[in-house]
Amino acid sequence: MRITNNTSFKVIAYIFHYNYGKGALVEIFPQQTAEVEGPLIGRLNDGDCYVYLPGKVTCHEGGDTANNHLHLSRGNSITTENEGSGQGVRIRHYLDKAI
Description:
Layout: E1 2-5, E2 11-17, E3 21-22, E4 26-28, E5 32-35, E6 40-44, E7 47-50, E8 56-60, E9 69-71, E10 78-82, E11 87-93
Parallel strand pairs: 1-8, 8-9
Antiparallel strand pairs: 1-5, 2-3, 2-4, 2-11, 6-7, 10-11
């Protein structure tokens, strides 16, 4: 998943899956974009395979909008989950405790 941080602070994001746990925590600095991978699910042909979550999210300090621009502030993390898939993404202010 591609996550863009349009806030004034660093954010931390990761992809989770109910059966495989969570992927690596990715720090995203203000005005930067990062690709976030899900947890490792195995190896195939000498390559690592990760849970894939398609899409993109932009975090900003304003209100939510219809085009995946989501409000993020200290104490108000973002969690989106694909209904019925058991996987999603969590994004939080870097000073907030892990979920």
